[in-house]
What we know:
Layout: H1 9-15, E1 32-38, E2 42-47, E3 61-65, H2 70-78
Antiparallel strand pairs: 1-2, 2-3
Amino acid sequence: xxxxxxxxxxxxxxxxxxxxxxxxxxxxxxxxxxxxxxxxxxxxxxxxxxxxxxxxxxxxxxxxxxxxxxxxxxxxxxxxxxxxxxxxxxxx
Length: 92
């Protein structure tokens, strides 16, 4: 999850080091909100009913699994066990 827009400075200051570490310490301004987050394992995002252009959002829910091993991610994708895979690898 990337932060694209300016952040609410008051909220960030209030949360301190816990900012962005759980669904309750993160703010949302896009088409989805984080409804479940098991750190380093999986998360669920659901349609943001407060999103300005919500009628243009065609998904109701996104379930994501964190896969740390690149080969496992590729294998899950190739065997249709996940629809996409973001591969983060160290390149020399």
